[in-house]
Amino acid sequence: MLIKRPDRIKPGEITPRDVYLHRRRFLAGAGAIAGASALPGLLTPGSALALAADPRSPGKKLPGVVETAYKVDGERLNSWNAITSYNNFYEFGTDKVDPVRNAQDFKTRPWKVKVIGECNKPGDYDIEDFISPHTLQERIYRFRCVEAWSMVVPWVGIPLADVLKRFEPGSKAKYVSFRTVFDPKQMPAQNQPILDWPYVEGLRIDEAMHPLSLLVVGLYGEVLPNQNGAPLRLMVPWKYGFKSIKSIVTIGFSEKEPPSTWNLAAPREYGFYSNVNPEVDHPRWSQASERRLEANVFDGRLPTPMFNGYADEVAGLYAGMDLRKFF
Predict the structure, then answer these.
(1) Distance CA 187, CA 182 (A)
(2) Nearest to residue 162, comparing CAs of 196, 201, 131?
(3) Inside any domain, residue 245
(4) What's the first-to-final CA gap in the chain, in angstroms?
(5) 116-145 as b/e, with b when 16 or more CB fall inside 10 Å?
(6) Which range has highest mean pLDDT (73-77, 146-150, 194-198)?
(7) Least enclosed by CB within 10 Å: which of 11, 175, 202, 245?
């Protein structure tokens, strides 16, 4: 094997960093797949097959991201591959690996967001109108899925309250609603009656204005991947993940409680509030414990904390409410 000294290597002979990293990822994934082929049970969604190609687009760093005090003490972050390769995004398919397979060509520019309802400044806004006036914050949040698995994710975004205040919600604005884009040509599963499309969600106005609520545009300091809800998604860390709606194109202010997709589909199983509460089980499984995900390898079960660990910050929002009735 010929090894050249650094002073004899021409610039044109140096393998670009992103090519090198992709080759390493491919080889590592290929080796993992070869090993897994002898173990039939391992080749499952989110396993070596799904993780062989890193879905990142190199060079899409977000400028000016500021770290914040929003941290999860004593818990390790999930890896980029785990976060981006094991997803619920039913518009791209119901299997956890479908979004990373089917969302790579999803077009997120140009992107408009329509603001409607009980506010003084409704209208059609470009996504840059949401992003450019604000400092992007990195926040490390727990992400809890209703299927009893969880992650710890470094989201990048803008406080939702900062954005909503710009539209000057009126005195009748008791709730905020959100709608996902409806585009069956790009989102293949929208051609199937899996849910009543487009996906819609909502929050009470005080929940939306809470400092923890975040409009997300990035992950690990990079532009948000398509399969994670690009270009604009919600993150409400004390609620189950399905409340954090993806690929938002409409924000509305209303006096009455807005519809929410999963509550419409199965009201006995998915309440409007959907707060993480270990004392209220899903009708088909317990929510008292969870499994931390890492590349589809789950750690041992952990007790589920009330409000996903954010009880000190948000319990006051629900003072006096029957949390079994308003689940």
Answers:
(1) 8
(2) 131
(3) yes
(4) 65
(5) bbbbeebeebebeebbeebebbbbbbbbbb
(6) 194-198
(7) 11
Residue 204 lies in a domain: yes
Q: Which of 229, 235, 240, 302 is nearest to 275 (CA)?
A: 240
> Among residues 152, 96, 88, which one has the least CA distance to residue 308?
152
| Residue 157, domain CATH | 3.90.420.10
Please give the full DSSP string across 235-267, using - where no structure is assigned. Answer: E-TTB-GGGS--SEEEEEEESSPPP-HHHHH-T
Under 8 Å between Cβ of 292 and 40: no
Q: Say what the pTM is.
A: 0.83
Q: What's the domain count of the chain? A: 1
- Give the pairing type, strands 248-254 and 112-117: parallel
On whether the CB atoms of residues 255 and 118 are closer than 8 A, the answer is yes
Q: CA–CA separation, 63 vs 221, rounded Å? A: 8
66-70 own/partner pairs: CB under 8 Å, 24+ apart: 66/135, 66/136, 66/137, 66/138, 67/137, 67/138, 68/137, 68/138, 68/139, 70/137, 70/139, 70/140, 70/141, 70/212
pLDDT tens digit sequence for 109-134: 999 999 999 999 999 999 998 888 99
Backbone angles phi, psi at 272, to 5 degrees: -65, -40
| Residues 202 and 258: beta-carbon distance below 8 Å | yes
Q: Which domain holds residue 119?
A: 64-318
Can you read off the two tokens belonging to residue 283?
A: 């009708």
**Would you say the C-alpha torsion 292, 262, 317, 67 has a positive or negative sign?**
positive
Each residue of 216-246: b (16+ CB within 10 Å) or e?
A: bbbbbebbbbbbbbbbbbbbbbbbbbbbbbb
- Write the single-letter amino acid at 183: D
